[in-house]
UniProtKB/TrEMBL annotation:
Domain RNA polymerase sigma factor 70 region 4 type positions: 104-155
Region feature (Disordered): 157-187
The keyword tRNA processing appears for this protein: no
Compositionally biased tracts (Low complexity): 158-170
Protein's UniProt name: Siderophore-interacting protein
GO biological processes: DNA-templated transcription initiation
Originating species: Streptomyces spinoverrucosus
């Protein structure tokens, strides 16, 4: 029986390969056609018992489905690549400003007392709620909110004390306190 399957497949391949290739090439070009035809006949070999007589319409349906899946996959890859490029372009455009702001904020943070730094880091960088941060430092959530408010004010004052030259020329800036309040520096 295996010889019969091989003979039947060879006959199908020899009789239909050119027409399947021409169909795919007319829709997607020659380079894609070679690949799709190979996959089409791989499916035909695996499902040889399902291939009807005449085999050409069935083979064209298989080729069409493979081509459709290939086009969808390529569209997904292109969309993903475009999205990554937009992220990279945004990052490149903002990187100098971000580095300058981050540097100024880290310098200001370094000047704060340890308790203030800890509260700001727990809140902004670790993303803890006031109740969670209060549990870490061992105080009530209300006390933590007051201490965090004061720490943010001191951070804002420390960062405002010596703004970088680039920021002064650039115009208005977002206060570090506002950035910490929304957790923007949690990078």
């Amino acid at each position: 029986m295996p010889d019969d399957d091989a003979d039947r497949f060879t006959a199908i391949y020899d009789g239909c390969r050119q027409r399947v290739w021409a169909y795919v090439a007319s829709r997607a070009g020659g380079q894609v056609a070679d690949e799709v035809v190979n996959e089409t006949f791989t499916v035909a070999w695996r499902r040889l018992d399902d291939v009807p007589e005449p085999p050409l319409p069935w083979l064209l349906v298989v080729a069409r489905n493979i081509l459709r899946d290939s086009i969808r996959a390529e569209a997904r890859r292109a969309s993903f690549a475009a999205e990554l490029m937009s992220w990279a372009e945004t990052a490149e455009a903002d990187i100098a400003e971000d580095v300058s702001e981050r540097s100024a904020l880290l310098k200001a943070l370094a000047t704060l007392p340890d308790g203030d730094r800890e509260l700001l880091i727990l809140s902004a960088w670790q993303g803890l709620t006031p109740s969670q941060a209060a549990a870490v430092v061992g105080c009530s959530p209300i006390t933590l909110r007051v201490r965090l408010h004061r720490a943010r004010k001191r951070l804002d004052q420390a960062a405002s004390a010596s703004p970088p030259v680039e920021e002064a020329a650039a115009g208005p800036r977002v206060s570090p306190r506002a950035r910490i309040a929304v957790g923007e520096e949690a990078r």
